[in-house]
Prior knowledge:
single chain, Structural Genomics Hypothetical 15.5 Kd Protein In mrcA-pckA Intergenic Region, Chain A, 30% strand, alpha+beta, Alpha-Beta Plaits, 6 helices, 23% helix, 3 domains, nine-stranded mixed sheet, four-stranded antiparallel sheet
Amino acid sequence: xxxxxxxxxxxxxxxxxxxxxxxxxxxxxxxxxxxxxxxxxxxxxxxxxxxxxxxxxxxxxxxxxxxxxxxxxxxxxxxxxxxxxxxxxxxxxxxxxxxxxxxxxxxxxxxxxxxxxxxxxxxxxxxxxxxxxxxxxxxxxxxxxxxxxxxxxxxxxxxxxxxxxxxxxxxxxxxxxxxxxxxxxxxxxxxxxxxxxxxxxxxxxxxxxxxxxxxxxxxxxxxxxxxxxxxxxxxxxxxxxxx
Length: 243
């Protein structure tokens, strides 16, 4: 089930905000009945009409992008910064990112127009691993990293246990390269976790999402997921939630 305004937006009829206006103006019907409430949710087989014209549902598409640094994980930005959808100029479907990578973080980002698929992969109960490589200031002690492995308290609550691995250290420059695996998706979570143990991140990249990697791609490049990969991702998320 998805919110009605989101379904209208995904169909390419209007922006989410404009879709809300259409609903409030009584110009939207669900299964033949006029709807004027914004909280309504609809199922995939519900018949939605806007201005008496039935919605044509887009065929679902799925992409993997190697997001560069200095790009917003959004479809638009009020500050006119570059957004991830600009890397898909030939795509007609209204795709949007699944989750987000912050402006200064690079790496693997998925985009789709399939709301159900996006919800499965971002819901907290579906514990899909996300692997990041972080360059941090200083050389963390093993006990400090164990705090992350056990879960550490942040301002929005304690994190789930992570897995950390020291890849390299530079004693002269006093920096370290740390691999960290998490399955949550809080805002700037990895950066906040390292800040909590006194080792701020200076560079961050997401290397893996589930079984997907950036192999064969350079920053700014993208590829379409195969049908098998989409099926595997869906199964991975649903199986993890049953553990």
